[in-house]
Amino acid sequence: MTDLILRHARLPHGAQADLRLSGGRIAQIAGAGTLAGDGATIEDLGGKLLVPGLVEGHIHLDKTLVGVPWMPHLPGASIADRIAAEKRLRHGLSVPVAQRAEALLARIVALGSVNVRCHVDVDDELGLGGVEALLGLRERWRDRVTLQLVAFPQSGVLRQRRVAELLEEAARQGVEVIGGLDPAGYDGDIKGQLDIVFGIAERHGRMVDIHLHDPGELGAFQLRRIAERSAAAGLQGRVAASHAFALGEVGRASFEATAAALRDGGVAVMTAAPGAAPMPPVAALNDAGVTVFAGSDNIRDAWSPLGNGDMLDRARLIAWRQGFAADEELWLAFAMTTEHGLRALGLDGHGIREGAAADLVVLPSPHVPQAIADCPPRSLVVKAGRIVARDGALTDPP
Ligand SMILES: [Zn+2]
Asked: Deepest in the core among 112, 228, 273, 339, taking most CB within 10 A?
């Protein structure tokens, strides 16, 4: 692969520079207009903003109905009702999971998400069908996106006969992360579910990411138990709690104790800036030393007909839900879709510096706060030093 030179890039903190990308990395950052071609491909950015590749920290590619004609939403009063409604809906689908997932993946890569964590349903009925489809997709798209898979027990771990075994088999087959779901609210057994999930993660050297919708003190209690498990297993920095609505509901003393436990246990918190649920207070968690990152969650599926997979738009929604207005608050929302996301996914060696992975996005914006306000089109998306999308379209889809 020939080197790629990005000339006259505006770096996130304002200065212009030239970058040479080589071997998948940022080989050199030099003064604007100073790097010679030497047979490299040259892109003159003309002062456009260059930012790290976006991180989609939580998506369900296997559930999406993108690529399928519109299906009206089926309501469900409880999580269990919604799971049952989803099963009914998915039974009637003629478009296979790999095709639907790929349609959505193509969309999000073109929008600049080049590092992605995807939860994939595992239950007695589906078995590992979804995981196998997504493992195939991960391989097929590996030059365009780092796709990290979570084996997700959407129907619980203990309520189903084979799920514990299926999660373990998914770890053997190569998923990076073991998922969980409301150990108390869904399985009714906090210790039982966490024993299985952390046990598999420890045996196979995998990460953990648990969906935690349980409210108030019940949710906060479980977050502290997850943090203790993480510390006891030496998994700090490799465990996440997704949603953690409880952090947006509990009183101050409980919040502070739980945030301290999450920090000490190295447990990151993912939020999608939910529209109708309590949201963790992002800035307070960040101030307490907790890694807070962002994801789209459901996009056009049985759980939500909305969502667009645009992580700049997600940063804007986070800012909107949190009442962020100051530039430094917008920077925090942006970090949740870039560097904090990478940290939560255990992907280091990124950023805009020499030696870092050359995962980059070019935006027609003067700076990051305005990019969040405007959500401009993506001029270029670069994965491992190669242009994978230009002006919103993939350059060479697989
Ligand atoms: Zn989810």
From this structure: 112
Distance between Cα 177 and ligand 1 center (Å)? 14
Residue 15: exposure state from Cβ atoms within 10 A (0-12, 13-18, ≥19): exposed
CA of 6 to the centre of ligand 1 (A): 36
Architecture of domain 4-53+350-394: Roll (2.30)
Which phi and psi (to 5°) does residue 155 adopt?
Answer: -105, 25
Q: How far is the CA of 142 from the centre of ligand 1 (A)?
A: 23
Is the CB of residue 119 less than 8 Å from the CB of residue 60? yes
- How is the chain split into domains, by residue range? 4-53+350-394, 54-344
Who surrounds ion ligand 1 at CB < 5 A?
297
Bridge partners for 28 per DSSP: 20
- Residue 308 Cα to ligand 1 middle (Å): 15
Q: Could you tell me the CATH superfamily of domain 54-344?
A: Metal-dependent hydrolases (3.20.20.140)
Ligand 1 centre from 332 Cα, in Å? Answer: 22
Burial class (CB in 10 A: 0-12, 13-18, 19+), 72: exposed
Q: What's the gap in Å between 271 CA and the centre of ligand 1? A: 10
| Per-residue pLDDT reduced to its tens digit, 187-215 | 999 999 999 999 999 999 999 999 999 99
